[in-house]
From TrEMBL:
The lineage of its organism: Bacteria, Bacillati, Actinomycetota, Actinomycetes, Micrococcales. Signal peptide: none annotated. This is NAD-dependent epimerase/dehydratase family protein. PANTHER family: NAD(P)-BINDING DOMAIN-CONTAINING PROTEIN-RELATED (PTHR48079:SF6), PROTEIN YEEZ (PTHR48079). It comes from Arthrobacter methylotrophus. Pfam families: Epimerase.
């Protein structure tokens, strides 16, 4: 029986833990509060504590890092977490699977592949870039095995919050035939990663018997928010619309609301086409995106009937 340590019990970590437990793995779910899911053993742990994470990883085949510090605290919270999980993987022998994103690429000139240059100059992107490069350096020294799964903006049941661009603040106004206010240009193509597909890719990456020390992209669907709104209107018989938040207003909000300052800093992702290419991941890991119509139906219905996503 495989033994797995999952750090973080949010929308991604909780789903990964449930999936692993359902297939028969022995799963420990580590969080600050001792949260758990059916089939997993709860463990109260500080993911930035190297000794605690190393002890929890003893005997584990894999450490899944699905923690998600507050958007405003990445610069302070992520570096010690990276240090702790790298130490734990090195000292325990567990493989290290990092849940990542696209911030480290910076503004793209075209579709981003698993081998695109990490060229960001934005603060949050630099934090993620530094963490990945530190883990990769340890891998290249032969101290551990590491891989990172990178998703675009996620959507699906439970997705909410100011930094979630295709969550409740988008779908709920549409379903009420009102206007969804969005960051950036709503008619530009953007990639969206369905939460269940993120979990599928993380587990497939952990099971991969080939090359490590590399990134994988979550197979995703690329559509503009104008087109998504049109589909919602057509399928749910509503009359919602999408309108951009003026850039000046976004910056002004950032002066008084810290999380909006961080949203503004990364809003370049919505001022140009922001598209993920996951063909290599699909071919080598055998995963694919959930058909868009199905994923959209599940996501939208979770806001119409909140209990349907649980």
């Amino acid at each position: 029986m495989a033994s797995q340590l999952v750090l973080g019990a949010g929308l991604i970590g909780g789903t990964v833990a449930r999936r692993l437990a359902a297939r028969g793995d022995q799963v420990t779910l580590g969080t600050r509060r001792g949260s758990t899911v059916p089939g997993a053993t709860a463990l109260k742990i500080d993911a930035s504590n190297p000794a605690a994470v190393t002890q929890a990883a003893r005997g584990a085949d894999t450490i899944f890092v699905c923690t998600n510090p507050p958007y405003t605290d990445w610069a302070t919270d992520w570096p010690p977490i990276f240090d702790a999980v790298i130490t734990a993987a090195r000292d325990s022998g567990a493989a290290l699977v990092l849940m990542g994103n696209l911030y480290a690429y910076g503004p793209p000139a075209g579709p981003m592949t698993e081998h695109s240059q990490l060229a960001t100059s934005e603060k949050k992107g630099l934090v993620r870039k530094a963490g990945w490069e530190k883990a990769l350096a340890a891998h290249e020294r032969g101290e551990l095995r590491v891989t990172e799964v990178r998703a675009s903006d996620y959507f699906g049941p439970g997705a909410a919050g100011r930094s979630t661009h295709l969550g409740g603040s988008f779908f709920e106004p549409l379903l009420a035939s009102k206007t969804a206010r969005v960051v950036g240009e709503p008619d530009l193509e953007h990639s969206w990663s369905f939460l269940p597909d993120i979990a599928t890719t993380l587990i497939a990456a952990a099971d991969h018997t080939g090359e490590w020390g590399r990134a994988w992209h979550v197979p995703s669907t690329s559509l503009s928010r104008v087109e998504i709104a049109r589909q919602v209107n057509e399928s749910w018989d509503v009359k919602g619309r999408v309108a951009p938040i003026p850039q000046w207003l976004l910056k002004a909000l950032g002066t008084v609301i810290p999380i909006m300052r961080e949203v503004s800093a990364s809003s370049y992702q919505f001022r140009v086409p922001f598209v993920i290419d996951a063909m290599e991941t699909q071919r080598m890991l055998g995963v694919s995106a959930t058909p868009w119509d199905e994923a959209l139906r599940i996501a939208v219905n979770s806001y119409r009937e909140p209990t349907s996503g649980k």
